[in-house]
Amino acid sequence: MSSLNHLLLLSNCFFFFLQFQQCFSNNVPPLINKICSPFKYYDVCVQTLNSAPGAATADLTTLADYSFKSTYDMLATTDGFLHALLQNVTDPGVKQVVTHCTTNYDESISLLQLAITGLEAGASHFGDVNDKLYMAWENIHDCDRVVKIGPPPPGLPDKSTKAAQFVDISGVIVLHNRTKYSPSKELDAKLRNKEARSHKYNAQEDGFLIEPPRGAKQNGYSHRSTSWNKNAGAGNSNANLSGQRTQMQRMTGKESAMLQMVNSIRKRRKITGHQTTCDEGGTQSTMDLDLKLDRMAWINFHKQERQMKTAKGSKKSMKEVRDAWNTLSMDEKSKFKMPKEDIVDDKVTLEKAAHEDNKVPPFDTRCTPIGNQQL
């Protein structure tokens, strides 16, 4: 009797071990076990993710990529089955169900393809990946709901349930990723710097700070530290941020148009070596008024010559205009001058002329007081 009891006890222990072998198995990597633990279909989840290449050491991104692609293959197979079924079904109720699911699967395949592309592009697209997968998840589960309501098409219920499980696995991975890495941390530093500097969004409205975590690792790589102030966009509209950026560029001389203008003026002064002189108080002398007339003559001549076509039918180049100007006598040049009474402060006109077609007038446009002639 005692031997029989021992035998029954050993049998029960062996049966208990077989039933709960998965609980003691060392074949499930810790990360996969952690992902699949809250999942309703634990065995399906473990079996799917454990089939990923290098599953034992795979990180979250690798598992997500494998899960997405496995789900895509499952959806593509089911979608092909639906299209074939749609050609042969005759019952109106069944045809309505098949048509509904076909539309959902067609859209879900496109959404999942975009999610896979976004995942391969890097963590900066995680928000978009999450949105696309969620829409695909809704479509697949909506089809599964309609199939269960009926009338069920032959062969579709099992395929629909299997596809819904695969989408759920991908959803669990994304949910796990989202819990571990919030959207503010998931965006990579490069995209954050670019968006922060271009002010394409308001950080406060988007619900996360511009500044990435310094030195923190997400999905196996580190975010670089940035010099951008994480509070730069808080409480400001996009228009205000853009205005602040423009104002700062003007203060620092980094605005492209302003920098080009300054460089253009410096270039002209360096090439011509010409400096006008000023009377006391900074007003231009009579000699400078004559120079103004010469400059206006040059501008008028330049406009006239540029409107003329060459033998080849193209506009004259800057060199050709200058050569033609240099061949004119003083009397001929004076014909292009304006009357003195029509001369006004032409600084703006001259600056526009200096920038048009990148031409460089032969004289400087600034009045430099005597004693400050050095550049």
From TrEMBL:
Q: Which InterPro entries match?
A: Invertase/methylesterase_inhib, PCW_Enzyme_Inhibitor, Pectinesterase_inhib_dom, PMEI_plant
* Positions of the Pectinesterase inhibitor domain: 27-173
Q: Which UniProt keywords are listed?
A: Disulfide bond, Signal
Name the Gene Ontology molecular function terms of this record.
Answer: pectinesterase inhibitor activity
Which residues constitute the signal peptide according to the record? 1-25
**UniProt KW Disulfide bond keyword:** yes
What CDD domains does this protein map onto? PMEI
Q: Where is this region: Disordered?
A: 210-241, 353-375
Stretches with biased composition (Low complexity): 227-241
Pfam families under this entry? PMEI (PF04043)
What family is it from? Belongs to the PMEI family.
Entry protein name: Pectinesterase inhibitor domain-containing protein
What high-level taxonomic lineage is stated for the organism?
A: Eukaryota, Viridiplantae, Streptophyta, Embryophyta, Tracheophyta
